[in-house]
């Protein structure tokens, strides 16, 4: 109906209108020729022609037009006052031509390199030059890469000095300028790429970090308008690959240089003079990280810092401990690197969590010290001991946990199977959790929804009678995390998001068909949503064979879902599915997890990283494992039996490879970082014999008899050992 009130207006001369402003009783229009038109009762008429209008505005009974300056008029420049000695475009063309000469081996290489350095410095020294160039950042990136490829080592160093002088001069000219317009701040994004000159570690550049500090301070002190303009330009002109390459990586490399350190013979760490720049670099990277999350411009791994992750775990843990003890006011005044976990690799975060658990285990052990008054001897039990039978694994484990003193559970876990003499240095515990996972997370346990088969473990909303079971599973889940052991569980990402207290959305719905249906509802463009979808604010489901109904809002059964309220419907439905319908089951599970992990720094992790910590990675790169393997007992990588072993592994089926990994390490998954980060040892177990290979899963060690060059014997014995052996025993 509203379309009947609108009157189409075509341009009288086949031009195109580019802007329109509404006043009181009139509208102002601007066309692509720079002419201005106004609406009348009979149509439109041109009121300003041939003046090259740039912008229009209308309000009330008034109108305004901004036109281009007359030819020959003295122009007033905004933001930057400087006398242009050379056309910026001609500088770029000259540099491009000289790079071409270097690429073609023409001209005097030294003179060309020096002239490129001089002109590059001039470009950087005047921000207005850069602001008028490289609207497409890819052009700058291409020229920069060509420059790095063609310059000799000496020329690169000369170029680095020119970049540093130019950046300092350009940043100094911005010092007292109010940077609020896009054309004034764009140069700041372009400046970032020039810090990548230190991609070559031999180049001396900004030794004390003064230039990068000034640059970051300039960005961090932008007024809101300038920040908004920079944000808009970064997200609209730097697609994912360029965003990472031109904005993130140069700053990360600079951070790696500033945060790098050496360790002397006394184990004392020494940092570089530019370390002072680390806080402001991290602050700018935090801004870029938030931008990348918001616009999906980069992956979390694109922000991992090698230098930060290589800082000793003791130093990082001290930083984490101090940060957790600091008040919000103290955190705002002091810099803590662990307050920015996006810089830490998953392996680094795992090490921090492991050290945190070890400290907690130590405290639990010390808290259990006992002094005998008669003998004055001090006794202490350092472990939480579980002695169970394989045939009653779940029942006995749950009973032991129920009866355990809460402080004992926080000690290091030590497992033994009755009737087996294996000593638990970690391997028995790994197999214990593997076997426990197979039973507890089995769909037939009644704890998990049968809707998704064996592929997903999602809470069974019908199970209202076994909250204690969910709590015990939570405890075991926490114990696995606490003791750095992988679990064979298939939780969807929503579980890890809930554990971290993150918001949930439509993408977290486990049911793919339901998720697709709700998305179709949101995407439907017609006005007849009520007639097409026939929905109300009510949900129905089957519970123990009976249909149940629930209103998503008061009187929801009588409120139809329309085009106007469909977003509210989806939000309420998602909340019911992921939160309300499993409230009691989730609260029991979460309380069990937090009995063990209440003080743990789980908030260091992203949901995807937490999942990797819990279940490991299913991507098994045995080539990486081979390159990381060490040999003992006389074996080397060139031993015939070792060559045959890796031939067997590489030719084996995926199932056999998984079983071999389980046989040697008691796990079917790779830890954080993959198999290339997992210590693995192959040890000689005597001369050639009919004995089968064995393993010390506690130490990821395979004991392999020396079958020599007999491949068939190795394949037969190793295959039997992998597929048939189970249990622990000592001779």
Distinctive features:
731 residues, alpha+beta, four-stranded antiparallel sheet, four-stranded mixed sheet, 28 helices, 18 strands, globular, disordered C terminus
Any overview of this molecule?
Helices cover 47% and strands 12% of the residues. By secondary structure, it is of the alpha+beta class. The strands form 7 sheets. A 4-stranded antiparallel β-sheet has the order 1-2-3-4, with no helix packed on it. It has a 4-stranded mixed β-sheet with strand order 15-16-18-17. Strands 5-6 form a two-stranded antiparallel ribbon. The chain is globular.
Count the beta strands: 18
Strand order of the largest sheet: 1-2-3-4
Shape summary: globular
Count of DSSP H/I helices:
28
What is the typical, i.e. mean, pLDDT?
87
Distance between the termini: 90 Å
Radius of gyration: 34 Å
* Uncertain regions spanning at least 5 consecutive residues: 74-84, 727-731
Sheet with most strands: 4 strands, antiparallel
Q: SS-based structural class?
A: alpha+beta
Question: Could you provide a short overview of the structure?
Answer:
Helix content is 47%, strand content 12%.
Q: What is the fold's blueprint, element by element?
A:
Layout: E1 17-22, E2 27-31, E3 36-40, E4 43-48, E5 53-59, E6 62-67, H1 88-103, H2 109-125, H3 127-131, H4 137-150, H5 153-173, H6 182-194, H7 210-220, H8 224-237, H9 240-259, E7 261-263, E8 269-271, H10 278-295, H11 306-309, H12 313-325, H13 328-333, H14 346-366, E9 370-371, E10 378-379, E11 383-388, H15 393-403, H16 406-409, E12 412-417, H17 427-440, H18 467-482, H19 493-499, H20 512-523, H21 529-533, E13 538-543, E14 546-551, H22 566-578, H23 583-597, H24 607-615, H25 622-628, E15 629-632, H26 640-651, H27 654-665, E16 680-684, E17 694-696, E18 701-704, H28 711-724
Parallel strand pairs: 11-12, 15-16, 16-18
Antiparallel strand pairs: 1-2, 2-3, 3-4, 5-6, 7-8, 9-10, 13-14, 17-18
Helix pairs in contact: 1-2, 1-4, 2-5, 5-7, 6-8, 6-9, 7-10, 9-10, 12-14, 18-23, 19-24, 27-28
């Amino acid at each position: 109906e509203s379309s009947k009130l609108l009157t189409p207006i075509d341009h009288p001369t086949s031009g195109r209108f580019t802007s329109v402003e509404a006043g009181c009783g009139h509208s102002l229009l601007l066309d692509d020729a720079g002419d201005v038109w106004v609406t009348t009762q009979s149509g439109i008429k041109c009121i300003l022609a041939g003046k090259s209008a740039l912008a229009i505005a209308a309000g009330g009974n008034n109108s305004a037009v901004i036109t281009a300056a007359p030819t020959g008029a003295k122009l007033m420049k905004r933001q930057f006052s400087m006398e242009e000695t050379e056309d910026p475009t001609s500088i770029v063309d000259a540099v491009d031509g000289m790079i071409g000469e270097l690429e073609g081996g023409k001209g005097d290489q030294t003179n060309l390199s020096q002239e490129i350095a001089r002109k590059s410095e001039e470009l950087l020294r005047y921000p207005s030059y850069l602001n008028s160039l490289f609207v497409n950042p890819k052009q700058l990136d291409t020229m920069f890469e060509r420059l790095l490829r063609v310059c000799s080592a000496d020329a690169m160093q000369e170029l680095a000095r020119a970049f540093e002088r130019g950046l300092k001069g350009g940043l100094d000219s911005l010092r007292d300028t109010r940077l609020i317009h896009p054309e004034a701040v764009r140069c700041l994004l372009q400046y970032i790429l020039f810090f990548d000159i230190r991609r070559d570690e031999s180049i001396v550049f900004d030794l004390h970090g003064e230039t990068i500090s000034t640059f970051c301070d300039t960005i961090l002190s932008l007024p809101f308008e300038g920040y908004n303009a920079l944000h808009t330009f970064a997200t609209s002109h730097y697609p994912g690959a360029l965003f990472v390459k031109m904005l993130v990586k140069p700053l990360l490399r600079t951070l790696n240089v500033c945060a790098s350190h050496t360790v002397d013979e006394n184990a004392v760490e020494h940092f570089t003079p530019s370390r002072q720049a680390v806080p402001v670099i991290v602050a700018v990277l935090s801004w870029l990280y938030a931008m990348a999350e918001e616009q999906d411009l980069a992956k979390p791994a694109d922000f991992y810092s090698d230098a930060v992750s290589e800082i000793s775990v003791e130093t990082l843990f001290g930083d984490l401990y101090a940060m957790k003890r600091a008040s919000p006011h103290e955190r705002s005044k002091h810099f803590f690197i662990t307050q920015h976990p996006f810089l830490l690799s998953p392996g680094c975060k795992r090490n921090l969590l492991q050290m945190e658990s070890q400290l907690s285990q130590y405290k639990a052990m010390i808290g259990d010290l006992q002094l005998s008054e008669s003998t004055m001897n001090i006794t202490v039990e350092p472990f939480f001991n579980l002695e169970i039978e394989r045939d009653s694994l779940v029942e006995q484990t749950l009973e032991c946990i129920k009866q355990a003193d809460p402080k004992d559970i926080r000690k290091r876990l030590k497992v033994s199977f009755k009737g087996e003499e294996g000593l638990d240095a970690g391997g028995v515990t790994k197999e214990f959790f593997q076997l426990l996972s197979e039973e507890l997370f089995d769909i037939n346990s009644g704890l998990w929804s049968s809707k998704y088969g064996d592929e997903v473990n999602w809470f069974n909303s019908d199970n209202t009678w076994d909250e204690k079971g969910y709590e015990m599973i939570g405890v075991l889940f926490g114990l696995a995390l606490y003791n750095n052991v992988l679990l064979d569980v298939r939780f969807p990402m929503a579980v890890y998001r809930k554990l971290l207290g993150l918001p949930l959305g439509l993408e977290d719905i486990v049911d793919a068909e339901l998720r697709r249906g709700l998305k179709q509802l949101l995407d439907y463009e017609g006005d007849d949503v009520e007639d097409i979808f026939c929905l109300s604010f009510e949900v129905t489901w089957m519970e123990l064979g009976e249909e149940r109904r629930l209103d998503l809002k008061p009187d929801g059964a009588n409120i139809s879902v329309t085009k106007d309220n469909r977003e509210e419907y989806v939000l309420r439905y998602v909340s019911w599915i992921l939160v309300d319908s499993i409230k009691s089951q989730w609260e029991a599970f979460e309380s069990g997890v937090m009995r063990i992990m209440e003080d743990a720094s789980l908030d260091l992790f992203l949901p995807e990283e937490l999942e990797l910590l819990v279940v490991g990675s299913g991507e098994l790169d045995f080539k990486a494992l081979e390159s990381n393997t060490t040999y003992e007992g006389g074996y080397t990588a060139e031993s015939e039996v070792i060559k045959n072993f890796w031939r067997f592994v590489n030719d084996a089926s995926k199932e056999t490879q998984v079983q071999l990994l389980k046989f040697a390490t008691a796990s079917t998954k790779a830890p954080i970082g993959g198999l290339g980060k997992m210590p693995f040892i192959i040890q000689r177990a005597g001369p050639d014999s009919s004995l089968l290979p064995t393993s010390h899963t506690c130490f990821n060690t395979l004991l392999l008899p020396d079958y020599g060059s007999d491949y068939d014997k190795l394949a037969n014995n190793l295959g039997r050992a992998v597929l048939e052996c189970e249990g622990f025993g000592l001779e």
